[in-house]
Amino acid sequence: MKAAFHFHKFVVAAFLVWAGCDAAAWATPAEETAQLDKLYTELRAADAEEASRIEDEIWRLWSHSGSPSMDLLLERGRKALEQGDYEAALDHLTALTDHAPDFAEGWNTRAIVWFQMGRFGQSVSDIRRTLALNPRHFGALGGFGAILEALERPEQALEVYRAALAIHPHLQGIQDAVKRLEAKIAGQDI
């Protein structure tokens, strides 16, 4: 019996290697936090090309809930969002946030849907939840800055954009927004 168990473990491990499964998908929360800490440190020191690779890795880690079914809901929600089917996206992402309320990326992705629908109040609510779960979520900060900018609150938007850049200094769109808002605010002071 013991030999069969060890053989089973070997077969499973071999299948995972053959199938190309990512070891990070099986990481414990503490291991994932350590991976993210390392990536955030590397991100601050990286050049633009390396920063793009690191950012992709961060998003990949953020997108793993620890549950294949929850990851599938996120994937379906994102696909519906890409296709402009906001109602379907909301259905998938609301199911995700209901069943995995501690999974920040579910809240963040639903915040994007609300934003695309022009429903800023719901978007801000989901952004707050995202940032409570993942305070270093530069994507959520960027989204919050965009909402503040759309609401004609340039000083607050600038503050939030700067917070996003403190985490990820290579976000070109946010760098451009900071320059634009700094010029706008300086022009108001004259």
From TrEMBL:
SUPFAM superfamilies noted in UniProt: TPR-like
Keyword Translocase: no
Classification via SMART domains: TPR
Residues of the signal peptide: 1-27
TPR repeats: 104-137
Coiled coil: none
A Pfam family this chain is assigned to: TPR_16
Record carries keyword Signal: yes
UniProt cross-references to InterPro entries, sorted A to Z: TPR-like_helical_dom_sf, TPR_rpt
A GO MF label: Hsp90 protein binding
Keywords per UniProt: Repeat, Signal, TPR repeat
Name by which UniProt lists this protein: Tetratricopeptide repeat protein
Source organism: Gemmobacter lanyuensis
